[in-house]
Amino acid sequence: MPAKLNSSKIIYKGKVFSFFSDNVTLPNGLTTNIDVIRHPGASAIVPLLNDNEIILIKQYRYAVGGFIWEIPAGVLDPGEAPLECAKRELIEETGYSANEMEKLTEIVPVPGYSDERIHIFLATGLSESKQNLDDDEILKVHTLKLDAAMEMIRSGEITDSKTIAGLFLASQFLDHR
């Protein structure tokens, strides 16, 4: 049985997400206020050049105070399907297009306060296209061995959750082909 929404008040409406204060009755009967970030969702892509080389980006993220390693990703436009978003973001951020995209999973990165869902895809059959960054995107494209990226996770150099999930799933996918 899901929670019952009694009332919802928008606190802030931003460019990417909105912040609400909801009054809900939980499945156990408790009525309480819960703050929630409503997010349109996103797609993320593990671009695979060959069986052991991937593309990662090192992107500036103001919220965490610097550059971090990530797989390419972006927010869904209104009405946009996750696959179309993945295709668009791969080209925009890396300058590569994919012949094939396979959905690996969907993750919920911060379920304690957000409804955001990230659809993670594996991109293969890559060919060069034209990078088209947004004005506020500061990033550099890198080609790495998948094993090296996995070691970067173990060493704590890669900390982004969608990137960790995507790389582990891509590694599993490749091991079981």
List keywords for this structure.
Nucleoside Triphosphate Pyrophosphohydrolase, 21% helix, seven-stranded mixed sheet, 177 residues, alpha+beta, three-stranded antiparallel sheet, 3 helices, 2 domains
Q: Approximately how much beta-strand content do the residues carry?
A: over 45%
What composes the largest sheet? 7 strands, mixed
Helix content range of the residues, please? 10-25%
Please, how many helices?
A: 3
Using DSSP, what is the number of strands? 10
**CATH third-tier fold name of the largest domain:** Nucleoside Triphosphate Pyrophosphohydrolase
Protein structure class: alpha+beta
Q: Give Rg in angstroms.
A: 18 Å
Average pLDDT value?
96
Task: Please name the CATH architecture of the largest domain.
Answer: Alpha-Beta Complex
CATH superfamily of the largest domain: Nucleoside Triphosphate Pyrophosphohydrolase
So what's the oligomer here? single chain
Shape descriptor? elongated
* Total number of distinct structural domains: 2
Distance, first to last CA: 39 Å
Query: Which H/E pattern describes the elements?
Result: EEEEEEEHEEEHH
What does this structure look like?
With 177 residues, this protein is of the alpha+beta class. The chain has helices at residues 82-94, 146-154, 161-175, and strands spanning 4-13, 18-25, 31-38, 42-50, 53-61, 66-70, 73-75, 96-107, 118-128, 139-145. The strands form two sheets. Strands 4, 5, 6, 7, 8, 9 and 10 form a seven-stranded mixed sheet that branches. Strands 1-2-3 form a three-stranded antiparallel sheet, with no helix packed on it. Helix 2 packs across helix 3. The mean pLDDT is 96.
